[in-house]
# Entry
Amino acid sequence: MGLLPIAMAPPAEAFNADTPMPHHSSVSGASPIVPQTHVGQRVLVTAAASGIGLATATAFLHAGARVFICDLDPVALDAALRDQPGLGAMVCDVSDEEQVAALFKAATGQLQGLDILVNNAGVAGPTALVEDMDFSDWRRCLAVNLDASFLCARAAAPLLRAQGSGSIVNLASTAGLFGFPRRAPYAASKWAIRGFTRTLAQELGPFGVRVNCVCPGSVSGERIERVIRAEAASTGQSEADVRSQMTAYVSLKTFVSPQDVAHTILFLSSAAGARISGQDITVDGHTETF
Ligand SMILES: NC(=O)c1ccc[n+]([C@@H]2O[C@H](COP(=O)([O-])OP(=O)(O)OC[C@H]3O[C@@H](n4cnc5c(N)ncnc54)[C@H](O)[C@@H]3O)[C@@H](O)[C@H]2O)c1
# Structure
């Protein structure tokens, strides 16, 4: 597949070299706790039309960054751009090699380079025992959750290495810290992201580039509701029972918000995190066991 359409109008003007950079005053919504930590930083967040990705992209805008997002879903992407017109955006399936090449061409062209990559794309994958799982479902989950991070990191690495600075943040999960019955591909992909993160941190560290990953626990929102419905259907439990089980072994007895995760991503990619690399940071209220 060749170049994909850039699904935006206002951001093209916002990132034109002759027009002012987007900053906090052009961002929709109040931001009471995000300081101007990323002024002028050029940020790409994948799969950011909703959920953690959109919260992260919005937080970066609030912090003074220039932000480009992509997503598979053009309708969700349009809605995100209406919500945050300061974003640059493009429709892209980040598990596809050619589409990722086109994404990096468009994003680095508009941003005039890259400082921060957030590999946010991830899908829940199938809920079933391994012995009952379709190979195609396994592969699709690994393609989005692991291959996409590889493809995007591979594209970003030479740019960041050449400029001698930059930060990559990968999204893993608390599921990457424990076994997760009936969610084998998801757990396997998130464990793999942690290994990928540490390895990439070693490869890029000598060039001043930091690589970390964030492990969110159960995040409130539509995605976790889908997971709860699938788990209830798979096990025969009620959705209420599944929901209460999900916080039973969380010390803080709560789901986390997309903003909680976004703030950690911003910290890791900020000057305050300048000596942090190769780490996986959980944002989960402390999951004691799964
Ligand atoms: N939500 C949670 O409870 C939770 C918990 C732990 C980890 N995570 C991880 O955080 C990340 C974001 O999760 P979320 O819940 O915000 O996601 P989500 O399910 O809300 O999806 C966010 C976006 O990803 C897009 N998307 C899906 N596949 C894509 C692809 N191949 N290419 C481009 N876009 C694609 C979707 O269209 C959607 O707009 C994922 O890596 C996920 O595994 C989420």
Observations:
- The CA atoms of residues 97 and 151 lie 7 Å apart.
- Strands lie at 42-45, 66-71, 88-91, 116-119, 166-171, 209-216, 280-283.
- Residues 47, 49-53, 71-73, 76, 92-95, 120-123, 144, 148, 171, 173, 216, 218-219, 223-224 surround nicotinamide-adenine-dinucleotide (CB under 6 Å).
